[in-house]
Amino acid sequence: MFAEKLRLDGRVAVVTGGGRGIGLSCAEALCEHGASVVIADLDAGIAEQGRDELRAKGHAVDIRQVDVTRSAEVDALAEAVLARHGRVDVLVANAGIARSGTAAEDVTDEHWTAVNDVNYNGVFWCDRAFARPMLKARRGAIVNIGSMSGLICNRPQKQTYYNASKAAVHQLTRSLAAEWADRGVRVNAVAPTYVETPLTRFATEEGGLLDAWLRDTPMGRLGQPDEVASVVHFLASDAASLMTGSVVVVDGGFTCW
Ligand code: NDP
């Protein structure tokens, strides 16, 4: 019974920013448990690479190009997925960008807007577009990718705009969960620590920042994309049927201090 609840056979899942990094790993975890997955990414080439990698492992994967900052494109994506697959059961709103190293007083309007457009507005456009068919079907699971940076201030990294955008995702998650709970749609978030992906390559290559991260992490290491993806899969599955509005921290103990 317990293993059965983790299965996603016959379900359709969409992962934004799913061509690489954490998103690609989420796509793989959902596929492995039986879902048909649509990878939606900004760069069609990256989406193709992700699709080819998963298809080579025998998984059912489709791709779509989308810019999550454009709500009309996101609405069109939801319509295209419905037209092609006839249903949508899971959304992983993962697309995000990170910028750091600028003191708050020096952050430009463009900088602030760019980060919030993807990390916060983009998540809402996606949640809204995919919740519509889910609410109609009275069934669906949304997992937003937040960050432990939405819970702590991360002062040495000077990334107020990123921290604030992720805190907003957490509160968005709780608010949507409360609105949609009685109509069968669950909304949860995952808040990861530093994970080894292209997004954090700048720190692992430069060394200094990585040393600080490792020192501040009780487990003493970075996360791997699959360690986030396994939690996302759990939240997307019926095994998490009583969970909605949760922000699940996956951080090797970083925020325990
Ligand atoms: P990556 O940069 O490796 O992957 C992000 C993907 O999102 C890329 O394929 C990127 O495409 C895509 N993307 C960016 N902007 C858009 C857009 N406007 N529309 C559609 N797709 C877009 O990042 P990670 O895998 O590391 O991060 C995934 C999520 O996890 C993000 O939300 C991030 O904030 C969060 N996170 C990551 C952590 C980490 O340490 N890695 C820690 C905590 C949270 P392109 O390359 O073309 O820009």
Automatic annotation (TrEMBL):
Keyword set, alphabetical order: Oxidoreductase
UniProt enzyme class: oxidoreductase
Record-level GO BP terms: carbohydrate metabolic process
Top-level lineage group: Bacteria
GO MF terms, alphabetically ordered: glucose 1-dehydrogenase [NAD(P)+] activity
Keyword Oxidoreductase set for record: yes
Enzyme nomenclature, EC number: 1.1.1.47
Protein family according to the UniProt entry: Belongs to the short-chain dehydrogenases/reductases (SDR) family.
Cross-referenced PANTHER family: 3-OXOACYL-[ACYL-CARRIER-PROTEIN] REDUCTASE FABG (PTHR42760:SF115), SHORT-CHAIN DEHYDROGENASES/REDUCTASES FAMILY MEMBER (PTHR42760)
Name listed for the protein in its UniProt record: Glucose 1-dehydrogenase
